[in-house]
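Researcher: Let's do a round of design. I'm pasting the structure tokens now; please hold your answer until I've finished.
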């Protein structure tokens, strides 16, 4: 059986190590094998490798990697989202399902695509598929200091939001968001954060929530307490859960306001829905409007790179 180099997780909670695994085989006419060119190291990738993602099967060894840029046998570059499988994309080769891939334009930087697509897709799809943002609407980005959150600020503006409120913990990262379109900045985790959030975001139409957990419980309370007309729809889109997997939601909150809770992710949006959004997002990345800067790392260095923190606006990209 032919083998290939890959990042291999043999124990949850430990970083992957460079190793050898069997080359995967296409299982249907929709699938083909590609050479992997670049793989982003996203939070979703880390949680999968830790056995902590909701799609995790608990099977080891596993190869992390949820998406990638690959080169097909005909030479075309494609961006693709991998199936939830124990053999992910951090390897020399990967199986692509054509229904979850898009051909990239000539001359595009594959590392940039690998770094940007995952963090950008969350808000792009949320604001186009889950709750299409209407021109002039107000958006609150909760957790705006991470890669996906800061992308969400830019993307909300780009898609026509009139006012964008950015809320996050890190002061330096938060301040930088004024340059990419945030109209109001609210620092979380400091005294009086709730009243500042209420004042800035009382009347928003859409919340893009990357935090969940205690910060979300506080934010729901702060926004609804300050809201002038609680019967105006407030769409709260759950996207990430860096601050906790659960919230406690008092029943009175749902009776006392037109709060519409929904999520954005695999499952909430069909594969066809995601696929339909990929070309327009690729075009924006190619035009330079939406960019996360890649920090290239060789596959052989994955163990050392795994725990490394990136600077704002950067993402580790593994180059097999
Ligand atoms: N559903 C989807 O389609 C989708 C797609 C992409 C990402 N996601 C999810 O979105 C989340 C963020 O992804 P990312 O790529 O932006 O991650 P990231 O770049 O690692 O950023 C995470 C940020 O979370 C902030 N944070 C962590 N704990 C916090 C807390 N208790 N209170 C406030 N802020 C806190 C940190 O901000 P500070 O620096 O301010 O501390 C950090 O910068 C992850 O859960 C990811 O899985 C979902």
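Researcher: That's everything. Go ahead.
Model: Designed sequence:
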């Amino acid at each position: 059986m032919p083998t290939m180099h890959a990042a291999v997780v043999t124990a949850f909670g430990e970083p992957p190590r460079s190793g050898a695994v069997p080359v995967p085989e296409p299982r249907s006419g929709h699938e083909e094998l590609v050479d992997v060119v670049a793989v982003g190291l996203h939070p979703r990738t880390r949680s999968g490798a830790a056995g902590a993602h909701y799609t995790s099967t608990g099977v080891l060894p596993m190869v992390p990697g949820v998406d990638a840029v690959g080169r097909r046998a005909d030479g075309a570059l494609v961006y693709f989202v991998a199936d939830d499988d124990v053999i992910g994309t951090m390897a020399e080769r990967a199986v692509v399902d054509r229904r979850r891939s898009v051909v990239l334009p000539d001359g595009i930087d594959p590392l940039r695509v690998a770094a940007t697509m995952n963090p950008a897709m969350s808000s792009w799809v949320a604001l186009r598929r889950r709750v299409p943002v209407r021109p002039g609407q107000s958006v609150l980005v909760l957790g705006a200091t991470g890669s996906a959150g800061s992308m969400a600020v830019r993307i909300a503006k780009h898609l026509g939001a009139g006012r964008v409120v950015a809320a996050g913990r890190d002061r330096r990262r938060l301040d930088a968001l004024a340059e990419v379109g945030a109209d109001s900045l609210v620092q979380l985790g400091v005294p009086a954060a709730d009243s500042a959030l209420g004042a800035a975001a009382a009347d928003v139409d859409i919340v893009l929530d990357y935090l969940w957990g205690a910060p979300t419980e506080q934010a729901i309370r702060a926004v609804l307490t300050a809201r002038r007309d609680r019967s105006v729809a407030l769409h709260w889109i759950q996207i990430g859960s860096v601050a906790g997997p659960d919230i406690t939601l008092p029943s009175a909150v749902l009776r006392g306001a037109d709060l519409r809770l929904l999520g954005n992710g695999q499952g909430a949006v069909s594969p066809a829905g995601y696929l339909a959004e990929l070309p327009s997002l690729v075009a924006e990345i190619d035009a330079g409007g939406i960019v996360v800067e890649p920090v290239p790392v060789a596959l052989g260095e994955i163990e050392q790179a795994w725990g490394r923190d990136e600077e704002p606006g950067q993402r580790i990209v593994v180059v097999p």
